[in-house]
Amino acid sequence: MADRPIHASEVSRRGFLAGAAALGAAAALHPWSARADGRRAHLRLMETTDLHVYVLPYDYYADKPLDTAGLARTAAIVEEIRREAKNALLFDNGDFLQGNPMGDYIAYERGMKEGDVHPVVAAMNVLGYDAGTLGNHEFNYGLEFMERTLAGARHPVVCANLAKGPLAARPEDDARFVPPYVILDRELTLGDGTKRPIRLGVIGFVTPQIMVWDAAHLTGKAATREIVDAARALVPRLKAEGADIVLALSHSGIVAEGEGTSENASLQLAAVEGIDVVFTGHQHLQFPGKDFEAMTGVDAKAGRLAGKPAVMPGFWGSHLGVVDLDLEHDGSGWRIVESAVELRPISERTDDGVKPLVASDERVRASVQAEHEATLAYVRRPVGETAAPLFSYFALVADDPSVQIVNQAQSWYLKDILAASEHASLPLLSAAAPFKSGGRNGPDYYTDIPAGPIAIRNVADLYLYPNTLRAVRITGAEVKEWLEMSAGIFNRIEPGQPDQPLIAADFPSYNFDVIDGVTYAIDVTQPAKYTAKGAVADASASRIRDLAYDGRPIDPDQLFIVATNNYRASGGGNFPGLTEDKIVFVAPDANRDVLVRYIIDENTINPSADGNWRFAPAGGSRVTFRTGPGAARHLAALTQLKAEPGDTDAEGYLVFRMTL
Question: Which domains are delineated in the chain?
């Protein structure tokens, strides 16, 4: 990729769509289109984000169709808008390269040779994107893999806060993997049918935390700047080069000021002078929408960040984000007169389940059909047997088999390695978290593997991410703090009160680590010591009780080795005391590969949870938690808890009531 800003006239791609629909048809699309004005134009901007290789509406983990996902479905909405609108552009906001077994098949099995086209890029090429940016998951398979993938894209990919090698003194002087921005020279059809050129500046941003999350791939090879700092330096250059309107592709979420704004800086980015529209993502949420209500500077109903139009269209192609601009040319340039924001879903949830709203675009489907079939063969390959079901329906409220098997595999892998090292005398623990536990991904997002043959697709279902295994050396006191952070997933419960929600909605399940090798209880009547972002909420709080190793209270000064992954060991999740200097072993293998090797070695695994953690008594308090409706098949596994299923809520979750 070029190391300098580029202009779209240098990129070979389809011409700008103009005027295929009659004026009356366009007027039905939006009333602005009906204005027969030689100075006004209606421009529609479309966004996808967080596709995670979901090209087809298919769940490779469950090996069945999936009506809530798939760029092939989103493509139908894109083409509908293009047929109706006189002026429309399409953008992608990153995280397209990793996230399901098709991505892993390409990365680990088929590979990416020079000249190969990645299937998600092939699908994007069919749709004719105008530009895109990088997300944090583009780096999961390494820089060479990413660069070979980007080489196949027919649209420019930009990122302003990513540098090749060390940072220069000024952002504008950074060496680049991809250009910081692009200017798209397009021609707009105006309300009276005449045409006038416009220059659209597109600048991209990625979460700076990639330097922590993918340190193994990026350390010494790349560097990042804070998103807002890069924008303040480079947006004026875009304007100076003649951009009429500036669009920010921000692979970064939306949070209030001071609440993790380094990672989720889209609200603060919108306030940068010169930016006109913000496309956002990363959080897998929907904006406009209720997820962002009552936040200063955010209009969650109209879709405004710092007063500017912005959109976040879910994930996996679940929605298409649409920003409508009513533009006026004042003789010297274009300005936005009005704007509107909407989300176009590909499915809806009804009393009978999920109903698709559009059919797949056959051109997109055909572009990846060969890779789809190869992925199916890949994920169906058996590697062993499981003597008991593996499921994650109760992973947030009880010791769980889907987490247990990961901890068993990590300990198995490290046991012999550590035996021949200077750490041979230290106790070995293992930490793992549930990845598929509903939440923002919906009531079907759970692991559910029956007893019997287990295949690669099942292993990918147990461990979603291509993390690599790490070992850290910490004290018994730091083990407790690790668990205190994990215990922040629970709301504080008032003894004796009925039907209190147990799970804190803003705490991601992948930060709920269970540590095997110790036993402990969690007292949810106490306040959480740490916030979901890892800040100290109450320094005197203590939820972890009866923490013991080998049947005795843990010694705060005793040293332990803990098996974990590169994300956690390098500071991911902001767990207290977990820093790079605590890492004592960097495995060459991915956690998922370790899990496969463990199953092959054991041939038949027994994933039954050992119950090493529990809730402390809470005065008979009644709490509620939500899980997938499939949990009803595994009620017999709730031996640790007094829980009863109730009704299904409006989102399709089965609601349990439980006595502590």
Answer: 6-14+41-374 (3.60.21.10), 382-617 (3.90.780.10)
